[in-house]
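Is this the right way to post structure tokens for a design question? Let me know if I should format differently. Anyway, here goes:
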């Protein structure tokens, strides 16, 4: 049996507080009848505390786009696990390719952030994925393996209950290009084998693996039908309530 699908929207550096509250208000109405699917949105840090009360009592959870590993200290610009939990976040996106590419985040840093989040009861959506050059060089599985193994270092089967992996081929993020269903499933199946090796067959099978990279209403159903694809981490399409709702409903099929 496949795990419960999990569709999350990463709003990146978009939407003012006013725009974010309007968007989540529209989304709430569009998916209020959806059951059997986990849903989350990840607004900018400035909008988290405004969006949080609008999600109370709904079927939509709140996520941050990042989290630091320290409880407090001289880490200018960072946000701790406890600060996010106080706002009402249930999840944090960790190690997104844009964080790795533009801000120098490493597998070691991803591991420290994820460990701190999970051990404090905050769910971690850990992102992995290869660049176009790495795929063309035939290094996709090698790169993803390293990111998964180093990112999950030291985590246990118990920790895995708060873990989600998001496979996002970097070459497909915001480009309009999408991995074929076969390409996506191949990497998801490989990630599944790594999870089972680390956590055991039962726990490894229960970890959700999302696909991300230009997910749209038109391609969501085919991707989500693959045996090891358990949801989606959606970028641009999550900024339109109707499109995001359509992707969510695609997971019902």
């Amino acid at each position: 049996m496949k795990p419960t699908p999990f569709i999350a929207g990463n709003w990146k550096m978009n939407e003012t507080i006013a725009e974010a509250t309007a968007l989540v208000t529209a989304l709430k109405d569009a998916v209020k009848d959806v059951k059997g699917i986990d849903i989350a949105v990840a607004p900018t840090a400035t909008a988290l505390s405004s969006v949080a009360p609008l999600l109370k009592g709904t079927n939509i959870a709140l996520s941050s786009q990042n989290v630091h590993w320290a409880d407090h200290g001289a880490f200018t610009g960072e946000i701790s696990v406890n600060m996010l939990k106080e706002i009402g976040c249930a999840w944090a996106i960790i190690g997104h390719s844009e964080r790795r590419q533009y801000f120098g985040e490493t597998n070691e840093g991803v591991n420290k952030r994820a460990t701190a989040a999970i051990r404090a009861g905050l769910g971690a959506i850990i992102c992995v994925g290869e660049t176009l050059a790495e795929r063309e060089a035939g290094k996709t599985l090698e790169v993803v393996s390293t990111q998964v193994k180093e990112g999950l270092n030291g985590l246990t089967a118990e920790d895995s209950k708060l873990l989600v992996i998001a496979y996002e081929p970097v070459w497909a993020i915001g480009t309009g290009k999408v991995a074929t269903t076969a390409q996506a499933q191949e990497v998801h199946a490989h990630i599944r084998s790594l999870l089972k090796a680390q956590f055991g067959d039962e726990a490894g099978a229960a970890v959700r693996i999302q696909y991300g990279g230009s997910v749209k209403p038109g391609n969501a159903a085919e991707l989500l039908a693959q045996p090891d694809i358990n949801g989606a981490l959606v970028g641009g399409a999550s900024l339109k309530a109707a499109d995001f709702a359509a992707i969510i409903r695609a997971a019902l099929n």
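Format looks fine. Someone answered above. Worth noting: Residues 56 and 88 are 9 Å apart (CA to CA). The chain has one domain: 6-236.
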